[in-house]
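Example (one chain per record):
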Amino acid sequence: MADVIRMPEVLAGATEAAIQTWLVAEGSSVALNQGLAEIETDKAIVELTAEAAGTIGRLLVGEGANVSVGEPILVLLADGEGQDAIGPALAAAGVQAGDSAPAAPSPAPAEATAPAEATAVAEATAAEPATVVTDEPGPVEVEAEESPSRRLFASPLVRRLAADAGVALSDIRGSGPQGRIVRRDLERHLAQREAAEPARPQTAATPAPAPAPPPSETAPAPAASTPAASTSTIFEDVPLDRMRKAIARRLTESKSTVPHFYLVADCRVDGLLELRRTVNENAARKISVNDFVLKAVAGALVDVPAANAIWNGDSIRRFSSVDISVAVATEGGLTTPVLREVERLSLGEISATVAEMAGRAREGRLKQHELEGGSFSVSNLGMYGTSQFSAILNPPQSGILAVGAARPMPVVGADGELTVGQMMTVTLSADHRVLDGAVAAEWLAAFQRRIENPLTILI
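Predicted structure:
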């Protein structure tokens, strides 16, 4: 019997998601677990797979369209069924039999369109470009059809930058898949155009105005005027993309509903920096300070298992393994892929895994399951020179550690002697529903012991 496939809640993780790309066409045969579509959620691209073999009878949603969770997106015909089975299946699902995937509108030339917005819906008018999914310059594509004979593909970010630079997409040769225009193509085009432009002639000097004649005794004095340009403010309203909306919603929810409290510790990291230098002299892969921090966080969560927990509504869920979310800055915003079983990983494995996941995060290629779970987060702004900051919790996790830069500071030794040491300030933001102050302080002390005695991180 024909089956109507709906937008799955487990993939969306929210109230809606967008069909980025259909991987099948109407009339094509699909096998069990074959990919049907790439679905964009707030921070990840998820592949929807077939739960049964069959034939694609009808696509009910066009690429780029936002779809609510539970809404029908395609009809899958069973073996031996024909097009006459689509109508009854749609009727049983409460969908009009005439509904099908909306045709892509005929977009205007790229230079005439406004910058694309990441949450553009399928009801876009004919003057707008085709569907938009994300501002990331990854494989998400926007069709900008300059003419019936040529189809141009570019990410929303490239469209926006091209519009700002006054460049028509038809003038750019794309180097991506299927000729997709990526950011480096635009930058190369701009560089070539700048090199080809002749030097601009200097503007001729404006002659000084003739002196005004003395005012007549009977003429009124001229009214003072304020130039409009001197009081006007130049600004740009940047449309919110899907990721920025998700970040705003989640952080507002966290800050307004989670009872945060904060603990600060200054960690002396002279030994850590020296150990890192020694390790990197012999390591095939360079180890960062953040890799040591992640390993120390995992060790502290093992030392204080009460902190390795999340808020579960009517209970507190504690974990036996340590999964840590790592904050990664991308062009579209902050994302937090989850590093699994960190307590079992070596520093080299942590370094390689974090680098690989961060790379895919910046390309918008993380999977939904890589963003789910975790009991704790680490946010490190030390590489930007930030000495200290407080981070906002990622519910339902119990805490997040904000890590500042190591910097030289005066330190009083045990014998009272004043010396200079490398100090790193960390701030723990904790959920008071999960962690009492004493438990949070115990965890922070365990972290400080490990980071100040870095050999404990390795064993």
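Caption: The first strand starts at residue 3 and ends at 6.
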